[in-house]
């Protein structure tokens, strides 16, 4: 079965020209007002929650539900990066509201997936449910204008990791492989040739691909780094690279070339590697779909390679 939003709207200025319902709750981050996103989308008169943090916590979801569950509105609109969209999706699911998702960064693919990633008890956890799918996704490439270079590269490598890991996933199929490979071709060209206007399309393809398959070892390894404050994209630059080498992925050399081009800062795990390996082993959603079996000794070896700073060596 293929799962995707029933309505996907793509194109420059589509978020500006779309006619939104009158009674909406907008869920976003503090940067929304600063960047005039609410003015651009004519949503400034809606109910607004603009306190979503990076790597959002379940307590944020609970706060929104507590504050707005008695308010009469028909739709929840998530606008922002993957964090804002993941929170909006989860809140809408729990409050049984319609969902309109508008990404302003392009890499998470959250606008077209049935996945929400939230921190529970200090650790990232991914929730998978068809009720998390958007009713309407609006992908407006205008948002990429004036986006910080660091945000662009972190978002782009996230999309590259998602589509290449999902292509190799044990539960991939012809549909997902088509979108994943197409996504990587578009993303690779956009990154290597600085054609950033193409990133929204590449991210959309990636979301449709991995959202109907699964990311694998690279993402499983990444969360222990993210839990220590390293940005998701920066972590994936190293964890997906080493995972692709471990899995003998056909994308390994091309992915490494992109990571090298984007010049990510080296990462290092602070916690005990043996403890981190035990945590990673509990992530069955990713590890069970990896193309090769993964054992604790493998995880320890891969984490040591990353910590030693040689993960990007051919």
Protein topology:
Elements lengths: L6 E4 L3 H4 L6 E4 L3 H4 L2 H4 L6 E3 L8 H11 L6 E6 L1 H14 L2 E6 L11 E6 L2 E6 L7 E4 L9 H20 L5 H19 L6 H12 L6 H10 L5 H16 L4 H11 L10 H9 L2 H4 L8 H12 L7
Parallel strand pairs: 1-8, 2-3, 2-4, 4-5, 5-8
Antiparallel strand pairs: 6-7
Please describe what this structure looks like.
With 314 residues, the protein is α/β, with parallel strands linked by helices. The protein has 2 domains: 7-144, Rossmann fold; 149-307, Dehydroquinate synthase-like, alpha domain, CATH 1.20.1090. It is built from 14 helices and 8 strands. The strands form 2 sheets. A 6-stranded parallel beta sheet has the order 1-8-5-4-2-3, covered by helices on one side. The protein has a two-stranded antiparallel ribbon with strand order 6-7. β4 (75-80), α5 (82-95) and β5 form a beta-alpha-beta unit. α6 packs parallel to α10. The chain is globular.
Provide the number of structural domains.
2
Q: What's the quaternary structure here?
A: single chain
Largest sheet: spatial strand order? 1-8-5-4-2-3
Order of helices and strands: EHEHHEHEHEEEEHHHHHHHHH
**Spans with pLDDT under 50 lasting ≥5 residues?**
none
The residue fraction in helices comes out at 40-55%
């Amino acid at each position: 079965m293929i799962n995707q939003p029933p309505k996907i709207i793509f194109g420059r200025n589509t978020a500006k020209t779309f006619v939104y319902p009158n009674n909406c709750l907008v869920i976003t981050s503090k940067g929304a007002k600063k960047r005039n996103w609410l003015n651009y989308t004519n949503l400034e008169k809606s109910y607004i929650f603009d306190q979503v943090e990076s790597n959002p916590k379940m307590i944020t979801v609970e706060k929104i539900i507590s504050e707005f569950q008695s308010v009469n509105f028909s739709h929840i609109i998530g606008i922002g990066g993957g964090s804002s969209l993941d929170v909006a999706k989860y809140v809408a699911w729990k409050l049984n509201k319609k969902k309109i998702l508008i990404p302003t960064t392009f890499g998470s693919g959250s606008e077209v997936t049935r996945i929400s990633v939230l921190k529970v008890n200090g650790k990232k956890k991914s929730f998978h449910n068809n009720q998390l799918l958007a009713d309407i996704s609006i992908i407006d490439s205008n948002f990429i204008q004036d986006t910080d270079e660091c945000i662009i590269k972190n978002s782009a490598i996230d999309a590259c990791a998602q589509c290449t890991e999902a292509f190799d996933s044990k539960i991939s199929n012809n549909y997902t492989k088509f979108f994943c490979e197409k996504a990587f071709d578009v993303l690779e060209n956009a990154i290597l040739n600085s054609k950033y206007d193409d990133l929204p399309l590449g991210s959309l393809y990636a979301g449709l691909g991995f959202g109907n398959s699964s990311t694998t070892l690279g993402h499983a390894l990444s969360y222990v780094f993210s839990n220590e404050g390293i940005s998701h994209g920066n972590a994936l630059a190293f964890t997906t690279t080493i995972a692709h080498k471990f899995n003998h992925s056909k994308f390994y050399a091309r992915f490494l070339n992109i990571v090298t081009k984007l010049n990510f800062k080296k990462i290092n795990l602070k916690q005990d590697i043996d403890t981190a390996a035990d945590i990673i082993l509990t992530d069955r959603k990713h590890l069970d779909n990896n193309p090769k079996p993964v054992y604790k000794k493998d995880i320890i070896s891969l984490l040591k390679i990353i910590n030693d700073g040689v993960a990007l060596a051919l």
